[in-house]
């Protein structure tokens, strides 16, 4: 028995499963030394263990930083938690690294306090062992961890006493850290730092100077550093990419499609072009179509340096000012990218679309293509609208109308989710922030891609081959219960006994005529949905109303698609001749891919969430920078969320969520009604509820953190436009002062129990 693990370990080099079990059941973080000691390894066995651990990190089994690999979508067995509240005297925690979409809340765990670790308070960090019980998630603390300045990135500041401080650039971190070694950094510069000791109050040391935090392109650098996104390719990866460029490309072992007028329709500023499409009438009321996808698996081979780096990155990350690509630019922006008038390697998906828009047949080939055009969405749409489109575009629109017909019959989830677009000039300065226009041209490409993705999944299933599915599960009963309770607070009904389908939500939204109320219900529907992920076990795609779905169409920017290509190569015998240059053999799935598909898909689901959060953070910073010169102005806003400490609102047609602290709402006490998602004034009955529209004054706009703060110009409740028809407010009972939980201010950062905690407004 060891300190790290209570179970006796077999002697000798452990296999991957034994290593994972040891890490997950260890009382302390288990690294190479602890594993070697537990299994009694010596000499060459230690060297073999080091290589095995490296392989496991590359496969996504472990993170390579002495912590256990864990599956996304739930709470890891052992992970770092942060205390977020004290409820009924018991600490409540959330996973520190939870990163789902913006509308899904992290799971909350009740923490079992022990004599050894009592008096936990809000903001404390702990390493805990977690389990799911009938009453919900429970956490047992293993050890208390020092406080952390998120990413240890911030701006150097100097106080009146000459002391240096690191002001954080993460809006979730409030406290600055003392700097013990400022190095060559100057006041006002953005820097990376590291702790000089283990204590939460230890000073930090500046290790890298990034420069002006408000300079063009600084916002994406902040996100890259904060989220730990790999952005520098190792030399061996670049060298392999340069060798791959020399791979021969001919029609000897490929279908020759160079005479087919295939076109790529993309954003005007796109640098990588994964996909291109073509269609023509079949004479039977339907269409024959080809979806040509970059043949990345020909260049990025299993087990090579390119493959290891692509797997580690998981996907490309897109910022307003730059792209952090999954593959080196010589491949992503050049050799793999489908461009007009040059020969390119492609994986071709041939489909037949019948008169009802159904996909009646499909086949996959490796091809050589030469695109007729690379055309922007706006240009393609303009040509169609003007009636001047060439035949190849007219055919694409004709085929799409059939696909759209089948889509309507399928009735997938139809949510209008506006996307913010940041436009920069050549110097990186913001020119405009607007909602991206949604054109039919976007829908044309989207529906062709969905058709190809379905065909890929079904083609692999037909061969009983491994499939990396894109999975979106039916909403859980817990989320549906919360959805039902929320609708009830708005005077609407939702029956849980019925079969839950996307169409059910669509019909509900169509019945809402008031635009403000519709936006409110739409957000509630979105909150009820599960997070999509990748996995080898099919559970369908609820949102698209599809039984089988796999990502096939973007292998330049998504590792999941590359795995699907490799599986198709094996299943349909599409292997290419062995190259004479120094590259790994084979372009199909390796044995390691097959054996670790579950772990790989979990890892790339995690990198996808990381990219989403980094992209969202960066957009928030650009919006705050755009608004920083308009502090004091009044904007039309809509309330997007309500908590006991205040409410969040977003500016119409611009976005950018900002907080209105309850302490700024005047001298009246406000009660938080969690089910109805509203704050209610005790004396006047003034309500601030999710979905309300009102004018708010911008009080702060912090470009470094992306945080906004609003104020109500007139706190007597006038000027609030309620969303839809509200049920009559119910009378509520309140605890007497001193009889229960105390009144608390927003600055105290406390959250009370729903319905009976009163929050103090501005003091007299």
Describe the structure.
The chain is an alpha+beta fold. The protein is built from 17 helices and 32 strands. The protein has a five-stranded mixed barrel. Strands 6-7-8-10-9 form a five-stranded mixed beta barrel. A five-stranded mixed β-sheet has the order 11-18-17-14-13. Helix 10 packs across helix 11 and helix 11 packs across helix 15. The longest helix has 31 residues. The protein is globular, with a radius of gyration of 28 Å. Its EC number is 3.1.13.1.
Strand content: 15-25%
Head-to-tail CA distance between termini: 63 Å
Low-confidence stretches: 1-7, 66-73, 99-104, 723-764
The multimeric state of the shown protein is: single chain
Structural class: alpha+beta
Mean pLDDT: 83
Rg from alpha-carbon coordinates: 28 Å
Q: Characterize the overall form.
A: globular
Number of strands: 32
Share of helix, binned: 25-40%
Q: Largest beta sheet: what is the strand line-up?
A: 1-2-3-5-4
Specify the biggest β-sheet.
5 strands, mixed, barrel
Pfam family, one: RNB
Catalytic activity: Exonucleolytic cleavage in the 3'- to 5'-direction to yield nucleoside 5'-phosphates
Subcellular location: Cytoplasm
InterPro entries: CSD2, NA-bd_OB-fold, RNase_II/R, RNase_II/R_CS, RNase_II/RNase_R, RNase_R, RNase_R_HTH_12, RNR_Ribonuclease
């Amino acid at each position: 028995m060891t300190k790290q693990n209570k179970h006796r370990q077999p002697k000798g080099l452990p296999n991957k499963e034994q290593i994972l079990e040891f890490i997950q059941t260890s009382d302390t973080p288990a690294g190479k030394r602890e594993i070697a000691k537990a299994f009694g390894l010596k000499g060459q066995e230690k060297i073999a263990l080091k290589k095995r651990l490296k392989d496991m990190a590359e496969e996504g089994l472990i993170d390579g930083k002495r912590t256990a690999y864990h599956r996304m979508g739930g709470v890891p067995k052992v992970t770092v938690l942060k205390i977020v509240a004290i409820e009924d005297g018991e600490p409540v925690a959330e996973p520190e690294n939870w990163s789902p979409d913006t509308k899904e809340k992290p799971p909350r765990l009740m923490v079992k306090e022990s004599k050894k670790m009592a008096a936990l308070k809000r903001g404390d960090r702990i390493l805990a062992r977690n389990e799911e019980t009938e009453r919900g998630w429970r956490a047992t603390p293993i050890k208390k961890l020092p406080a952390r300045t998120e990413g240890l990135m911030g701006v150097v500041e100097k106080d009146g006493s000459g002391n240096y401080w690191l002001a954080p650039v993460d809006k979730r971190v409030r406290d600055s850290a003392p700097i013990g070694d400022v190095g060559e950094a100057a006041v006002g510069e953005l820097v990376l730092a590291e702790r000089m000791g283990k204590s939460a109050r230890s000073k930090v040391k500046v290790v890298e100077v990034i420069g002006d935090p408000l300079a063009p392109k600084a916002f994406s650098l902040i996100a890259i550093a904060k989220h730990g996104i790999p952005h520098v390719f190792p030399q061996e990866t670049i060298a392999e990419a340069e060798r791959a460029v020399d791979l021969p490309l001919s029609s000897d072992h490929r279908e020759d499609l160079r005479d087919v007028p295939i076109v790529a329709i993309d954003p005007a500023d796109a640098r990588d072009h994964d996909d291109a499409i073509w269609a023509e009438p079949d004479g039977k009321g339907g269409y024959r179509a080809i979806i040509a996808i970059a043949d990345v698996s020909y260049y990025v081979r299993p087990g090579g340096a390119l493959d290891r780096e692509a797997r580690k990155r998981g996907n490309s990350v897109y910022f307003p000012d730059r792209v952090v690509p999954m593959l080196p630019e010589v491949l992503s922006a050049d050799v793999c990218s489908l461009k007009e008038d040059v020969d390119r390697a492609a994986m071709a998906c041939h489909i037949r679309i019948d008169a009802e828009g159904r996909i009646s047949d499909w086949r996959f080939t490796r091809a050589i293509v030469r695109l007729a055009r690379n055309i922007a969405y706006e240009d393609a749409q303009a040509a169609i609208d003007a009636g001047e489109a060439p035949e190849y575009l007219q055919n694409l629109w004709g085929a799409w109308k059939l696909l759209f017909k089948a889509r309507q019959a399928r009735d997938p989830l139809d949510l209008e989710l506006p996307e913010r677009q940041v436009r920069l000039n050549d110097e990186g300065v913001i020119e405009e922030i607007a909602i991206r226009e949604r054109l039919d041209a976007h829908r044309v490409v989207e529906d062709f891609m969905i058709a190809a993705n379905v065909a890929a999944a079904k083609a692999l299933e037909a061969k009983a081959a491994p499939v990396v599915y894109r999975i979106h599960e039916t909403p859980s009963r817990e989320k549906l219960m919360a959805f039902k309770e929320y609708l009830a607070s708005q005077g609407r009904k939702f029956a849980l006994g019925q079969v839950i389908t996307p169409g059910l939500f669509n019909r509900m939204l169509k019945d809402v005529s008031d635009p403000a109320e519709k936006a409110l219900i739409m957000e509630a529907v979105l909150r009820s949905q599960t997070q999509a992920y990748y996995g080898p076990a099919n559970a369908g795609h609820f949102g698209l109303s599809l039984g089988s779905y796999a990502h096939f169409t973007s292998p330049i920017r998504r590792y999941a698609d590359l795995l699907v290509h490799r599986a198709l190569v094996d299943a349909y015998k599409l292997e290419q001749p062995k190259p004479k240059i120094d590259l790994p053999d084979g372009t199909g799935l390796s044995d390691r891919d097959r054996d670790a598909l579950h772990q790989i898909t979990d890892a790339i689901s995690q990198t996808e969430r990381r990219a989403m959060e980094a992209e969202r953070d960066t957009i928030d910073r650009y919006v705050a920078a755009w608004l920083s010169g308009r502090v004091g102005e009044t904007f039309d806003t809509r309330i997007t969320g309500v908590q006991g400490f205040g409410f969040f609102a977003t500016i119409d047609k611009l976005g950018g969520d900002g907080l209105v602290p309850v302490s700024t709402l005047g001298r009246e006490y406000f009660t938080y009604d969690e089910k109805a998602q509203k704050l209610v004034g005790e004396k006047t009955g003034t309500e601030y509820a999710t979905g309300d529209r009102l004018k708010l004054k911008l009080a702060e706009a912090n470009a470094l953190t992306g945080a906004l703060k609003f104020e109500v110009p007139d706190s007597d409740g006038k000027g609030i436009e309620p969303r839809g028809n509200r049920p009559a407010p119910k009378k509520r009972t309140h605890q007497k002062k001193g009889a229960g939980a105390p009144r608390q201010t927003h600055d105290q950062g406390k959250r009370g129990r729903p319905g009976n905690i009163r929050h103090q407004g501005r003091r007299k």
